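ok, trying the design again with the full structure, not the truncated one.
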């Protein structure tokens, strides 16, 4: 799926790939100052865990959290950044919950049908 969006006046390109059976594969996200190559397949877990081939969503969210936390020690400090940090940390918690379910073997039963959510923009 190829998407081209304009966010806040600055453009970005987003490309996401599947294996043809609906399983996510790699992809890219490019914008000024950002060049992300996404993880290309499930990492697995336990003894079967593989080394990442690209960025993980949680890592990218954490980068945004760290930048916003930095802002809170500058003249950019504001309540909106505080709320954004809280929301991003909650996103990390949801991703960790998904990982736990996957490791417990519950994810396939609970998430077997993809959910189509509307884009927020």
């Amino acid at each position: 799926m190829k998407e081209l969006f304009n966010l806040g006046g600055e453009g970005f390109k987003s490309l996401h790939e599947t294996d043809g059976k609906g399983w996510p594969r790699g992809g890219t996200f490019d914008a000024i100052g950002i060049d992300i190559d996404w993880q290309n397949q499930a990492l697995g877990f336990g003894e079967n865990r593989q080394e990442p081939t690209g960025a993980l969503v949680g890592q990218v969210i954490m980068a945004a959290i760290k930048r916003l936390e930095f802002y809170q020690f500058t003249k950019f400090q504001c309540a909106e950044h505080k709320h954004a940090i809280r929301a991003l940390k909650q996103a990390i918690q949801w991703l960790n919950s998904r990982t736990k379910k996957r490791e417990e073997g519950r994810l396939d039963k609970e998430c077997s049908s993809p959910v189509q959510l509307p884009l927020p923009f």
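Keeping the full-length input from now on. Residues 19 and 25 are 6 Å apart (CA to CA).
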